[in-house]
Amino acid sequence: MKNYILTLLIGIILIGCSNDDETEPVQSSCDFINFKYYNGTQDFLGEMSNEYILIAVDTTYSDNEIENFISTTNIFDQNYNYTIHNITQYKFKEIPLKLNTSKNCEEITQIISDLNENTIISYTHFTMITDDCNNAIWEPMGDLCINTYGSNFYVKVFDENDLTDLNQMISETNTELVEQNQFMEKWFELRATKESNGDGLAMANYFYESGLFEHSESGISKYPVE
Questions:
Q1: Alpha helices for the chain (secondary structure H)
Q2: Span 75-119, pLDDT tens digits
Q3: How far apart are CA 226 and CA 223, in angstroms?
């Protein structure tokens, strides 16, 4: 009888511990960044869009392959009339897409992580709400636009003859050197990949915050979505 009671007490304790573990809240994260650095200050880029995200695919993939991928991915609104943007001299096609339902930041962070597991996807980025729906020469682009960013960013070194810090940061962050500007030799174009320590915007900010560079800035894009 004593052995039975002891066994029963141990079982109750173990069940209680197990239940405590199961009820622990799942720790979620929000990776959205709403600013870039410009002239040494934080330049606000807009509030996160809950309805749109950006995917990018290498230009080696055809539009048909991209369309097939989108049509088989149920997180996207399959009734949305999207556009595949093929940018001159840029390695990737960018496609702003509407989600099937409005999502919060933690959900979009997870969606981005999941989408990036697909071979066809080069990167997936947040988008930002904007009231400005004009292009660079102030022509209307549509009724509703979003701001977003690419994988490339631009770093200005203090001394183009000493690239020790630049090369060390590239290695540390798993980013890539694209090219040095042939006319402005202090400027270098870099690229964040899915293996980098963050996306293009995060890495641009990180390089600037290191204090090792005069400037570091991500390119911002604007797309009409309606």
A1: 2-22, 63-71, 105-115, 164-173, 200-209
A2: 999 999 999 999 888 999 999 999 999 999 999 999 999 999 999
A3: 9
